[in-house]
Amino acid sequence: MRWGWTFRPQGRGTLIQQSWQLLRLDPVLGTTRGDLDALRHLMADSAEVTLASLARWIAEEFRPDTAASPRRISG
Q1: Which of 14, 21, 41, 68 is the most exposed place for a label (fewest CB within 10 A)?
Q2: Pure H helices in 1-75
Q3: Going residue by residue through the chain (75 aa), what tens digit of pLDDT does each one get?
Q4: Residue 7 near residue 74 (C-beta atoms within 8 A)
Q5: Contact between 71 and 54 (Cβ < 8 Å)
Q6: What is the Cα gyration radius of the chain?
């Protein structure tokens, strides 16, 4: 899997877009189309938890003097 997040200022907040890409099939992720559909739904459902965690991290770690143009963080 490849994960990424894009951050863009919006009003007094930030619009965050999460993305992910399945790089290769692996039996641990499933072996049928149904398994992959279930994985896709799980990933979509987990976005809210991920974004809440990011919001907490930003609130604790973000320093205004380090702000720059929108940036992309990926792993």
Answers
A1: 68
A2: 33-61
A3: 888 888 899 998 888 887 888 888 888 888 898 998 898 888 877 877 877 887 888 888 766 665 555 555 554
A4: no
A5: no
A6: 15
